[in-house]
């Protein structure tokens, strides 16, 4: 398995193992995509196997920033159709990432998930499902549920922030209940052929937070609920490992996830060089490599990386 190896997921086949992970540009107008944003993604779709578009809020109450993209109503669909068509024309595939913003502030320790009623939980689930259906209508090849980086679903998963005493708190099963209900309801709404991924905040690196040994059970439950791809990242520590800056610094988490399921696993974190991406795939840490900052800085990174990998292979 190499960086330039194709990979079939559901009814699509990626040309290589490079993924552009979601990175918020904050360039929307009223939550809608703009022409510069479409062009930005189009340029990076060249020679990139998969594009995961930056997070979109599923309802107004879950908006994280003023210029965040929206997937909260049907008015956004036409713009996304232009975006997905531009990505497809370059030979890549596109997944939308849907998200609900954090509840309270972890830094000031004022997170109280008990303040979210069962009725509101139902509203949140409905909003995720409706957003997923909009992503399908918009021409995306799949949808990714954002459950990492201190956002709402990550807060439900982590025992550090989830102190609920009902069916949505306490045990690992209960802390994953909202995730799994959302996955199952989305699957029912979009059908069997549409890709569902989850960006999983697998570990908080924090005393009293989520545990590394819970990853296998969490991953297996997501797969059973209907997920087709696991995108590994940090939990309450967000998108950085506080103890490592090496290329692929979440590799230990992704290795556990990969050994716990038979669906593709994405590893993202500090990978800037093609040789490191190739090595992490060959060493079995993941099936796909997320290239974030490097692709942000150089829209031709994927093209150059594939060229380098093929040269290395031909020289052997």
Automatic annotation (TrEMBL):
One of its GO terms (molecular function) is FMN binding. The keyword Metal-binding does not apply. SUPFAM superfamilies: FMN-linked oxidoreductases. Keywords: Flavoprotein, Oxidoreductase. Residues 5-101, 113-306 form the NADH:flavin oxidoreductase/NADH oxidase N-terminal domain. It comes from the Archaea. Pfam families: Oxidored_FMN. PANTHER family: BINDING OXIDOREDUCTASE, PUTATIVE (AFU_ORTHOLOGUE AFUA_2G08260)-RELATED (PTHR43656:SF2). This is NADH:flavin oxidoreductase/NADH oxidase family protein. It comes from Methanobrevibacter ruminantium (strain ATCC 35063 / DSM 1093 / JCM 13430 / OCM 146 / M1).
